[in-house]
């Protein structure tokens, strides 16, 4: 049996009133008496009447819905960002359509087609690891779709962007290892094309340069799918552990890469920090319960979501074309725990 939502016509028929009277009463019009409005609203609540969003969108020329596209909803960082987005969106009467690319450019394209065919009012996006052609996003932006990027941004599209200060975060994490006498610090990064990868590697290299340490390219590894494919992480960890001069520390530049690498090292009976000191990006509250407790670069994910949502709503609701765009760079928190405490060696 097909579900049919209650309509204004149903209320009018049941109460013996005209549809125009019911419509005005539900809009709280001064033309309708308080007694009649109460009667109509009570009955509407009784039958669980909800305004038709399609009809409202035709009238308002807005759907009051925004699309959110991330790489993986299960990733703690992205789930916290989504919570931040929803807190602002729902407070302002907007619905949120949440989607995930799973680091696939093909899936990302399909999702963008789906969201825009549903006439969303705006889009908040962190691009997939595979995406290196931004033609579709550029076209959507040029056609007037309000877009805000967060975390993984597209530099050539002139709009609002909300990011972590990735360079400073990794710089401070690497500096912490250098101050504790680590000499061969390796990094495992996300896809080399991503903006966050470039920024985080710049922080790593800045710290090494300041300490007059050579940058050994054999210590820099990439996972094209950001840790979603475990075999990719296993491969690069094995490559690092079989180097003639093995690393004595690792800086892990993505959330999934961090947890997968930690798990692989445990399985290989690599002692942390005695054999290898480890610090990585992760927003999970459970990293303190790891054994050893994991040192992390924690991003202000909820605040990123709040800011991205507010900036998008500003774009959507602006009466004039917006030409002044912001790049919000929020400071990460470096949490030092047992996995990188070299003094315990």
TrEMBL record:
Keywords: DNA-binding, Transcription, Transcription regulation. SMART domains: HTH_LACI. Pfam families: LacI, Peripla_BP_1. InterPro entries: HTH_LacI (IPR000843), Lambda_DNA-bd_dom_sf (IPR010982), Peripla_BP/Lac1_sug-bd_dom (IPR001761), Peripla_BP_I (IPR028082). The keyword Ion transport does not apply. Residues 6-60 form the HTH lacI-type domain. SUPFAM superfamilies: lambda repressor-like DNA-binding domains, Periplasmic binding protein-like I. The keyword Transmembrane helix does not apply. This is LacI family transcriptional regulator. It comes from Niabella ginsengisoli.
